[in-house]
Each structure stands twice: as C-alpha cells, then as structure tokens.
Amino acid sequence: MTDIVKSDAIPDKIPASRALHTNLLKGCMLVCVSLTIALVGFLILYILIRAIPNFSWEILTTKPSYLKGTIGVLPDILNTIYLVATAIVIVLPLGVGAAIYLTEYAKSPKLVKVIEYAVETLAGIPSIIYGLVGMLFFCQFLGLQTSLLAGSLTLVIMSIPVIIRTTQESLKTVPNGYREGAFGLGSARWHMIRTVVLPCCIDGIVTGCILAAGRMLGESAALLFTAGFAHALHGYIDGITSSGATLTVALYVYAKEQGEFEVAFVIAAILLILCFITNYLAQAFGRHMQKVK
User: pTM higher than 0.70 for the full model?
Assistant: First the structure.
C-alpha cells in the first residue's frame, strides 16, 4: 500500500525554478494589494483630515443663505437620498426581472445575445450622453422639467446594465440540479425561481445593488442636465418633483464655481459616509436573506 501512495510521478520537492516563479507571483500580488490598500487609505485619510476641521452641526442641518452668508448642505443630503432611493426602487425590480427572463425564460440564444450586447453597450456609454438624452426625453418630451424625478429616471437607465449583468452571472452560478430537484417535486417555474434560485444568488443581487448605488452617489455629469442646482429644502413629495442639487453637483459648484474647497471636502466626507452606510445596509440585507433561506 505504501508503494502505491509514493509514486514516482509525484516529486518529493518542488523544483527551484517553479518555487522561484511562485514566490515572484506572490510578491507581485502582495505589492499590488499593498498599493491598493495604501491608495484607498490615503484617499480616505486625506479627505477626513481636510474635512473634520470644517465639520459643524450648523453646516449639516441648515440650508445655504446668501443673505446671512451661511453655507449648509442639508438640502443636498436630502436630495441625494431622495434621488438614490427612488432610482433603486425602480431599477432593482427592472434589472432583476430582466436578468431572470434572460437566464430562466428566454428560449432563443440569438435574442439573449442581442440583449446582452445591448446591455454591455449601455454600460459603456459616457454619463454625459445619458444626461443629454435625459434632458431631451424626460425633462422636455415628457414634461418633467428639471427635477429629481428626471434625474432618478436617468440614473435608472444608467444603472440597469449593472444590475442585469451581476444578477445574470449570479443566476448562472446556481447548479441546475437545484432546478431539476424543484421540478421533480412538482414546483412551478416561478415558484422554483422564487424559493430556490433567488435565495442562492442573493449575494450577487446585493453586489449589483451596491455597485449601482455607488455609481448613483458619485454621478454628477448626468444630473447637471436633469436634476438642476437648487438648494431648496423640501419634503419627499415636493422635492422629487422639484429641481435640486445632489451632493456631487454641490461639490462641483462649491469647488469649481465658488472656490469653497473647505465645504467641498465636507461634502466629500459625507459622500464617503453615505457609501459606507449603503454598503453596510446592503450587506445586512444579504445576511438577513441568507438566514431566511
């Protein structure tokens, strides 16, 4: 038995050239990881160091007043939350539904390839073009004017390729045996998708939601044409139908147009905090769905 295990085909030692090659690859990967962590850490620390001295309760809870000479970003924070929440509520069912159709229902491979090519093309279009199309279609043709609703619908078109592709790839990772087992137990297709397939790929859906929300939070070019520059303080119903500046648009205005770099760094720090909160909530939702599964 011992002679069978110790075969001549398995060398006792790794050749020196192969070991050197492996160590070089490990070293390169370690350098790449270290540089990435260092760059991200430097970016976060630099923004926080420039922003913390200018943080105040007043700037976070008031709106700008040119008569009093005060600057507040509360309208910009609320506008960002209104816009991202509205866009996510619209794009998530559309993107997930399209991915489910392409993966589970579509029977024509040619149709699937055409749709996938169109989705990939949409993902590569510059955001300024989305803003121009959104201004012409949503603001003028549909009569929504310059408003957060027009900006949200523009972001929906921009983000739907991300949701579709991530969800589609996650659906493909679910073993076909799960589907066949559900069909063997007499489950209908939609019941099988809802109770077996979707819980298994919830991580991919959450990842797509995080990527889409991150792009929405960082978008400014498209919103310059569709959402506007107003700093008025509104509730959700009035705010979504009115013109409003998001945090990214406000950052551009304060830094580029007015030269208020202190306020710009405060807004940058708020955007970082919103990104962390969005990622945490999405991951918490994914963990909850895993427990439910």
Answer: yes
